[in-house]
Structure formats: structure tokens, C-alpha cells
């Protein structure tokens, strides 16, 4: 197991449990090591790594029947401090085996394990389907292939590994899926298309009004023939008298 802790200062702590100082961290009877990253207690405690071991001894075979497999005993090992509680507020993210299990959003450290579980179960998009939606599809497929099986909901659900109660929870969860919302750019494009004819009509109306007003101006400015002739005659008489 490899654990990386990233801090907001740029510091990175890496813990690699595959490389112990000693080739055998526990006694020679250890056959299996159990690691626990206590991320579940991060809200109230420091971040700890606990390592336990399964002990095998000859006496564990005593009083065991010949056809029965003896049971190894899990023994408590050691506890290792990874992040002190006073430093939790400076942690940016935590990565375990190359998977981000915690990240900071503002002042809060998000539990990525819980988030990933819900995302896997519930989230749908154009390229991925949730486990819940797949369960509904498998259920309906099996029901359509065998009408007799479809009449027995308990047996039908067991066919794909669910209980009836679990499948009912899936149906409730799928009923909460948000309705598809049009993307903003699509809505904007549609609105622009709808508004375009109206704008053209307004332009045409304006142009018509402009032409109409222009003709009115021309008519208003056009001089009256009688008045113009009188003025011209007066001007002509004055020239002759000189």
C-alpha cells in the first residue's frame, strides 16, 4: 500500500508499506498482514495507519478435526501516525494506491470514498451508466425472458445478486434522477433564432418608416409653384429698373 499526503504548503508525505526496514515486520509466524487507514475517524482524530497480522502456530491445530482447516489468529500489531490532527486543516488531498480518497473544498476535507460509492451507484451521463440503472435494465431483461420468473420478484432479484428489498431501494433512487436540462449554449442559440425574425421585422418597419418620413420631408420642403414664380418676377423687375 502506498499513501501520499499533499499539503497546501507544497509539502508531500509518502508512506510505502511495501518497504519495511526489516524484511519481516512481525514474527516468523505471520502469514497475512492487515492494513487499516483510519480515514473514517478523520473528523475527530488524527490520520492513523494500523497494521495487524495473522499468526499461525502449531498449537492452533490442536483439537481440530482432520478434515477441518485450522484458523489463524489475527493479532494486534502497531499504529502509525500519518497526519497529526493539528495538520489536518493544511491537507490538500490524500491519495491511496494512486486513487484520491480525500480532497479539500474550502475549509472542508471531502470524503472521497463515500463520494465515489454514490457516484458509481447513481451517476449517469452520455458515456457511463450507474450501477442502479444497470440493475433496472438487467431486472427488466430477465423479467421479459421468463414470465414465470417475473411473477416471483424475490427469485428474480436473486438471479442478478440483489434482494427484493435492495432492488426496491434502487427503484426509489432511480426515481430521484434529475430531469435532463438543456445546455445554456443550446438555449441561447434557440432564443437567438427565435428573436432573429422579430429583429428583421423591426428593421423592415424602421426602414419603411424612414422612407415614409423622407417622402413627407420632401413634400413639405418642395416650394409652391405660385410663390416661386412671384418671387422670380419681382426679382426680374428689379433688375430691369436698374
Protein architecture, described:
- With 242 residues, this protein is an alpha+beta fold.
- The protein is 43% helix and 23% strand.
- It has seven helices and eight strands; from the N terminus they run E-E-E-E-E-E-E-E-H-H-H-H-H-H-H.
- The protein has helices at 112-122, 131-145, 147-150, 153-159, 164-174, 184-221, 225-241; strands at residues 2-7, 12-16, 30-37, 47-55, 73-83, 91-96, 99-105, 108-111.
- The strands form two sheets. The chain has a five-stranded antiparallel sheet with strand order 2-1-6-7-8. The chain has a three-stranded antiparallel sheet with strand order 3-4-5, with no helix packed on it.
- It is flat and about 60 Å long.
What is the element layout, followed by pairings?
Blueprint: E1 2-7, E2 12-16, E3 30-37, E4 47-55, E5 73-83, E6 91-96, E7 99-105, E8 108-111, H1 112-122, H2 131-145, H3 147-150, H4 153-159, H5 164-174, H6 184-221, H7 225-241
Helix pairs in contact: 2-5
